[in-house]
């Protein structure tokens, strides 16, 4: 019987937080983009939002910018669901047929790459060492 251990890297975004930021601070400010790690897009939305106000008052075409931001705001809802459901879960399987030394090498390479923390690495390593 195969045993599988899932180790999360802790970089997943909460869907509820993303949706609340999108609904209340998303239009114009783009706060949900900062939370999801899309800082450049959030800054672009903020700049367009700021420039749209004088464009309405001085030139009258700022409404087009606000409509574009509204469409962008709705499209971001799709990205919120995609990016919030991304979770960096690493599965390290250890079954009777696989060699424990290979599992230790996999764990060590994940630890060296910085994917696993030292606590996660030592806990899984101790568990594998017991079965040797």
H/I helix tally: 6
Q: Point out poorly predicted stretches.
A: none
Summarize model confidence as the mean pLDDT. Answer: 81
Reading the helices and strands in chain order gives EHHHHEHH
| Share in β-strands | 5-15%
Count of distinct structural domains: 2
End-to-end Cα distance: 17 Å
Structural class by secondary-structure content? mainly alpha
Computed CA radius of gyration, to the nearest angstrom = 23 Å
Main sheet: strand order: 1-2
Number of strands: 2
Molecular shape: rod-shaped
Biggest sheet statistics? 2 strands, antiparallel
Helix content: 55-70%
Compact overview of the structure:
This protein is mainly alpha-helical. The chain is built from six helices and two strands.
Please name the defining characteristics of this protein.
rod-shaped; 132 residues; two-stranded antiparallel sheet; 2 domains; 6 helices; mainly alpha
Description:
65% of the residues lie in helices and 9% in strands. By secondary structure, the chain is mostly helical. The protein folds into 2 domains: 3-9 and 87-130, no CATH class; 15-84, no CATH class. Helix 1 (15-25) packs antiparallel against helix 4 (62-84). The mean pLDDT is 81.
What is the strand and helix layout of this fold?
Blueprint: E1 3-8, H1 15-25, H2 31-35, H3 39-59, H4 62-84, E2 89-94, H5 100-112, H6 118-130
Antiparallel strand pairs: 1-2
